[in-house]
Amino acid sequence: MENTDIVKENKWLKYKEKGIEGFFFLNGILAVFILLGIFFLLIREGYPTFKEVSIVEFLTSTRWNPTSYSQSGYGIVSMVVSTLAVTIGSLLFSVPVGIAAAAYLAEIAGRKEREILKPVIEILASIPSVVIGFLGIVLVGPAIARFFNISNGLNVINGSILLGIMAIPTIVSISEDAISSVPDKYKQASLALGTNRWHTLIKVTIPAALSGITAAVMLGMGRAIGETMAVLMATGNATAFPKGIFTSIRTLTATIAIELGEVPYNTTHYHSLFAIGAVLFMMTFLVNLVSDIVLHKYGEGE
Amino acid sequence: MKSFNKRGLFALITVILVGILLVGCGSQGGDDTHIELRGSDTMVNLGQNLAEAYMERQDEVTLSVTGGGSGTGIAAMIDNRVDIANSSRAMRDSEIEQANDNGVDPFEIVIAMDGLAVFVNENVGVEKLTIDQVGAIFRGDITNWSELGGSDGEINMYGRQSNSGTYVYFRDNVVKEDFSDEVRQMNGTAQIIEGVRNDSFAIGYGGIGYTVDQNNHVVSGLNVLSMAADEDSKYVNPLDSKNVESGKYPIARPLYNYTDGNPEGAQLDYINFALSEEGQQVGVQTGFYPVSPEFREFNQRQLGN
């Protein structure tokens, strides 16, 4: 009697085990489904654009004016270049600052400094982008205008600075983890060979942590490409091809955000915004892919 | 004991969920005394002040007013997602067709008039322009203020985004072609004002109400231009409200409300209030102008009295 009870119990446990396993598997694979779902939605909704607009025009024309008075234009080149310009600009500013801050936190700062600095940097990550954008209008913009002696500060530099500020916490936090996890032996060996701390940091610790730092930079870059609100508010949103770092630009994300609210359903304009979404998706996908390849290469090299 | 607890928990959750469902249903049924207005950013303040005044008079009907741009309001009207659409431009024929396809029959009424001000930074040194000159600036044909007798500096243009009724009205009536792609597209008229104030070679456009503060003083740093229909006409300034009311100021436009079908009940009552002497006065206090005689007649025809 008791024996069969135990057997039953065991069977029940087995099923339970299986059930739980299945549940976690589903959760794990859910992200894949969502990703594929989004991609197919973008392709399906974006594809009809090319019944009206040639794909060559879409990818090579610099004129974007779907609601034109006379002839609509559906070229995304200006916006792609604009997006890349602010992204690269933000990295020029956030990567050196971010890595230096991470190195300081991991290698030089005492416990007390670290305990204060780390949470503060993490709080920086939680500032809503609309607040950052607001600062771009009232603080960074006028400052840029005064500093460069130009008439206004709604331009590429403004967007780059704001995006840089937003990318810094990601870069610092992940780079710091990477630098901290470099084995002490490496540093001790270097110091034993007679180098000083600076040399050890630059020539041994940071190169050893490079894969993690690369991942940090790529994640920061992904954030910068996809960021919408701050650039929408601070870059001026002129659809012209960017002529320099002092011109107003409009990014891919800002275009979708501005135009999707008003666009009549199922028109070429509507579909073209999804096509832009697909382009954006592929850009971030490419960034992630490259970072993955880089990580792998370094992983194998070790 | 254990399983009993679990069952108890299930029962409790069920009771809570059913409760939420019932409450949810209860508040949905038979509620037609809430009117939702959406659309034109230009009209948000006007709509809110009208709604406040209206709600003070009675307490059966509540109103909520949100912006987003005329295009947003019209899109919501087409999809039947809003009771009244605010729009600073008339609905296009194609939009009315789309609405009809969705079983919506847009009904048009003019609730106020708006003068569009063209303003520059005070450093520009230009006081008056013709419509043609402003159009040429925004087309990108005139690029330096010195060409217009102002200080030597490249013109920076500030405008609205394409979902704005102001954008469409200004393009169709002043620019008469596409805007130059160098125009900075700002999120709202308040941002245009902010941009022009901070940019010493800037020009922008927007509702006159936005260019003055509560005490009817022009926002500091701005210079509201006098305009003329052409070189032979008289230049008039929109800050003098008589110029706009009399129709002398060349860029004045009607502001519309759209409902689905002839307004009835609470909606009709609200629209009648907006058109009443008191409602029109609310508009004047917000920086707009009473409905012109021409559109007053139109309203009467529409409402059938």
What this model shows, in words?
The complex is a heterodimer of chains A (302) and B (305). Chain A has 302 residues and is mainly alpha-helical. Chain A folds into 2 domains: 2-46; 59-301, MetI-like fold, CATH 1.10.3720. Chain A has 13 helices and 2 strands; from the N terminus they run H-H-H-E-E-H-H-H-H-H-H-H-H-H-H. In chain A, strands 1-2 form a two-stranded antiparallel sheet. In chain A, helix 5 packs across helix 7 and helix 6 crosses helix 7 (156-180). Chain A starts with a helix and ends with a helix. Chain B has 305 residues and is α/β, with parallel strands linked by helices. Chain B folds into 2 domains: 34-112 and 254-303, Periplasmic binding protein-like II (D-Maltodextrin-Binding Protein, domain 2, 3-Layer(aba) Sandwich), CATH 3.40.190; 114-245, Periplasmic binding protein-like II (D-Maltodextrin-Binding Protein, domain 2, 3-Layer(aba) Sandwich). Chain B has 11 helices and 11 strands. In chain B, strands 1, 2, 3, 4, 6, 7, 8, 9 and 11 form a 9-stranded mixed β-sheet that branches. A two-stranded parallel ribbon of chain B has the order 5-10. In chain B, helix 6 links the parallel strand 6 (156-160) and strand 7 (184-186). Residues 24-31 of chain B have low confidence and may be disordered. The interface between A and B is large, with 34 and 38 residues.
